[in-house]
């Protein structure tokens, strides 16, 4: 059961009207919205592929933009934490090292996901017509679905614990929610792309 009183006390440390906090929330929400809208537009129109001369070049360009936006998001997240009070009871070595361990696990999932999928597999190559031959089932996909997203969430969670930051924990919850919504939109759409591929193969 959730201790509601403890949650209220925890988030009593957070000023949700602070400009830095609002900017962090907006940057977190914007990123998955941006790449889903752009990737679906590309899948429908092939406009980016035409502009950049090939689907691969267009995918690399979108991937670069996503990486920059993720850096901006992380910067906003960190600045929002620094502008808000720490939870004194958590400002100890055990919290710091627990956060460090969680961040390390999250980083492992993110890096191993990237290595398993490759650049185009990571950055929505499916939407550009760059399809994988078969579903990736090796680590970390053998452990959980969408390890890139949940690994990234774990990194933010660990970072928040390392800073004993209630604001960071609340922002991490926003990250988790934004990724959950992204998965709900991306999963069925990606599956449909591969269903169409299979139909094309069978019809030949």
From TrEMBL:
One Gene Ontology molecular-function label: phosphatidyl-N-methylethanolamine N-methyltransferase activity
Pathway this chain belongs to: Lipid metabolism; Phospholipid metabolism; phosphatidylcholine biosynthesis
Signal sequence extent: none
Protein name: Phosphatidylethanolamine N-methyltransferase
GO biological process: methylation; phosphatidylcholine biosynthetic process
Reaction catalysis annotation: 1,2-di-(9Z,12Z-octadecadienoyl)-sn-glycero-3-phospho-N-methylethanolamine + S-adenosyl-L-methionine = 1,2-di-(9Z,12Z-octadecadienoyl)-sn-glycero-3-phospho-N,N-dimethylethanolamine + S-adenosyl-L-homocysteine + H(+); 1,2-di-(9Z,12Z-octadecadienoyl)-sn-glycero-3-phospho-N,N-dimethylethanolamine + S-adenosyl-L-methionine = 1,2-di-(9Z,12Z-octadecadienoyl)-sn-glycero-3-phosphocholine + S-adenosyl-L-homocysteine + H(+); 1,2-di-(9Z,12Z,15Z-octadecatrienoyl)-sn-glycero-3-phosphoethanolamine + S-adenosyl-L-methionine = 1,2-di-(9Z,12Z,15Z-octadecatrienoyl)-sn-glycero-3-phospho-N-methylethanolamine + S-adenosyl-L-homocysteine + H(+); 1,2-di-(9Z-octadecenoyl)-sn-glycero-3-phosphoethanolamine + S-adenosyl-L-methionine = 1,2-di-(9Z-octadecenoyl)-sn-glycero-3-phospho-N-methylethanolamine + S-adenosyl-L-homocysteine + H(+)
InterPro entries noted in UniProt: PEMT/MFAP, Phopholipid_MeTrfase
Keyword Lipid biosynthesis attributed: yes
Organism: Platysteira castanea
A GO term from the CC aspect: endoplasmic reticulum membrane
Spans through the membrane: 20-37, 95-124, 165-185
Subcellular location per the Swiss-Prot or TrEMBL entry: Endoplasmic reticulum membrane
Taxonomic superkingdom: Eukaryota
Main location: endoplasmic reticulum
Alphabetical UniProt keywords: Endoplasmic reticulum, Lipid biosynthesis, Lipid metabolism, Membrane, Methyltransferase, Mitochondrion, Phospholipid biosynthesis, Phospholipid metabolism, S-adenosyl-L-methionine, Transferase, Transmembrane, Transmembrane helix
Enzyme type, top EC level: transferase
